[in-house]
Amino acid sequence: MRFDGKKLLNKILLIFSVSILLVSFGNNVFAQFDDKVAVLETNLGTIIIEFFPDDAPNHVDNFIKLTESGFYDGTLFHRIIPGFMIQGGDPNTIDGDPNTWGTGGPNTSVDAEFNTIKHNRGIISMARSADPDSAGSQFFIVHADSNFLDEQYTVFGRIVTEESFETLDKIASVETVSQDRPQDPEQVKITKVSIINRYEVSNILELPEPERTESIITPSTGNQKYESVELDVGFSVPEGWLLQTPDKTEANAPDVVAVGPKTGVMNPVISLTVQETGQRTLDEIISEKIELINPAVDAGNLKIISQEKMVINGYDAYVINAQADFLSNGESFEVQFKEIMIYDTEKFYSLAYSNELNDFESQLPRFEETIDSFKILSEDASNDETMNETSTEEGGGCLIATATFGSELAPQVQQLREIRDNIILSTESGTAFMSGFNQFYYSFSPTIADLERESPLFKEFVKLSITPMLSTLSILNYADIDSETEMLSYGIGIILMNVGMYFAAPAIIIYKIKK
Fold first, then answer.
1. From CA 475, how far away is CA 185, in angstroms rounded?
2. 81: which strand partners?
3. Interval 309-364: pLDDT, tens
4. Coil, strand or helix: which one is 340?
5. Which CATH number fits domain 33-200: 3.30.230.10, 3.40.630.30, 2.40.100.10, 2.60.40.420?
6. Distances in Å between the alpha carbon of 64 and those of 67, 72, 193, 328, 464?
7. How far apart are alpha carbons 439 and 441 in whole angstroms?
8. What Cα–Cα distance (Å) separates residue 19 from each residue in 8, 23, 113, 216, 305?
9. Short-list 41, 126, 121, CA closest to 82
10. What pLDDT band is residue 64 in, cutting at 50, 70 and 90?
11. Which residues are registered as beta bridge partners of 77?
12. Of the ranges 174-188, 327-341, 420-434, which is most confident?
């Protein structure tokens, strides 16, 4: 006997958190981005775009985030070449000088995700400069097959309705002037771009899988780091996996989800769910979980392979392995789960991995790397901001983390952590500096962090005070440091800059006032 889809979903949601199911079932119903489409409303018609997250996860994520921020609203298709492509997505086309069209974009870029999808009619690909990793916001829609672009630009979607192709043809046929600009920009304005559910579009064409080249592009096997000051966690997930932070709809819904490329009938998924302990012990939480899953086990719809308590990364933990049969689109397949619940005093953190039974072992080592890298930032900062194992006094913490928690500076602090790990600590001089800095910093940081918690006004004062320092340290994000000499020169320059801002400038001002 098997559950029907609805009953199975209801029970499994109680077992391994919403994240496993939302992104694991099939391509159409439960995939995070496979069930999303973009709607481009133009003055000549509407264009519907479906995404290829398996082939270009970071580009898809980038396009969706820009869309949801309203970035594309009001932009133009500024470069139109009939028989080739139409290009848009440049914010300079909203009110900038036409001579700057084609040069604008966001402050960040996306590394290349060249894939084997051919640049045939209707394909959406990312524009870039000579640097393969320079894609920002500009994209182009292929008007006629242009296979000379294959594997040199990142394909991340395609248009999927009859009206979309008609609109493409209309835009491609407008009158143009020099540099392939539209003679009448209002004709080709993108009035609004939005992200909606696929099922909301009734006229999507039944298109075959996109045509591919015969090349084999080997994906990277590295890891990408994730840190969240808000969630107070840090860990790594496999590079190239689509990293998402879905809306928290209920307590057992995931906070972070990483979706891997499909190798079988489903995508492998790693998720993190953070929940309050409510002063419950680990044993009490385990008992509640077992009580919830027992009906499914008794009915034979869920099989517990193993479960045990252990210590992971210094924390008490509970590990459970299970299998279940799933029915999706009339097809049945077996899914295996592994969930590790890491218990702390106030919160517990559920890290889960799911995949088809036959492919489960293939990505299990990647999940184990995620577990090994997991850390609670506040405790990691209190005990050792970098590599220093000297613990701080009880009740203290990191004054920077405390001051910026949940504020507009939180992303900047996360970026500085990456600079510290990837740049500063990659050199001996940087490591030596951080070791000495930690000893100095934690001699006073816990006391100030406690004062920040007691006084919101004092916290704002600290946040205001450290803003110039954070800005100067961000310079390292744009520095190309390949040697000890370069690290020393940049480091000394930044130190002198801060000395000037915090000591020399105030001293000069005070002297002038007194004089």
1. 38
2. 85
3. 888 878 889 999 999 887 655 667 788 989 999 998 889 999 999 988 888 888 88
4. strand
5. 2.40.100.10
6. 5, 10, 10, 26, 32
7. 6
8. 15, 6, 25, 31, 21
9. 121
10. very high
11. 88
12. 174-188
Dist. CA 309–CA 289, nearest whole Å: 14
d(CA 227, CA 129): 30
- Within its chain, how far is the Cα of 340 from the centroid? 22
Q: CATH fold of 5-23+219-379, please?
A: Protein Transport Mog1p; Chain A (3.40.1000)
Q: Which helix (H) or strand (E) holds 150?
A: none
Highest mean pLDDT among 67-76, 271-280, 282-291: 67-76
Q: Which residues contact 252 (CB under 8 A, 6 or more apart)?
A: 13, 14, 17, 18, 273, 275
Most distant CA pair in the chain, distance: 90
Identify the residue whose tokens are 């193993």. Answer: 306
Q: Which of 315, 313, 241, 212 is closest to 57 using CA atoms?
A: 241
- Closest C-alpha among 268, 76, 269 to residue 183: 76
Secondary element (H or E) of residue 24: helix 18-24
Domain segments of the chain: what residues? 5-23+219-379, 33-200, 387-514
Q: Which two tokens stand for residue 373?
A: 């890298």
Report how far Cα 362 is from the mean position of its chain's Cα atoms.
23
Place of tokens 């709809």: 249
Encoded tokens for 338: 């592994």
Tokens representing 55 are 């082939």
pLDDT reported for residue 470: 74
Cross-strand bridge partners of residue 197: 36
User: Considering Cα of 267, then 360, then 237, then 378, what sign does the dihedral take?
Assistant: positive
Between strands 375-376 and 347-356, the pairing is: unpaired
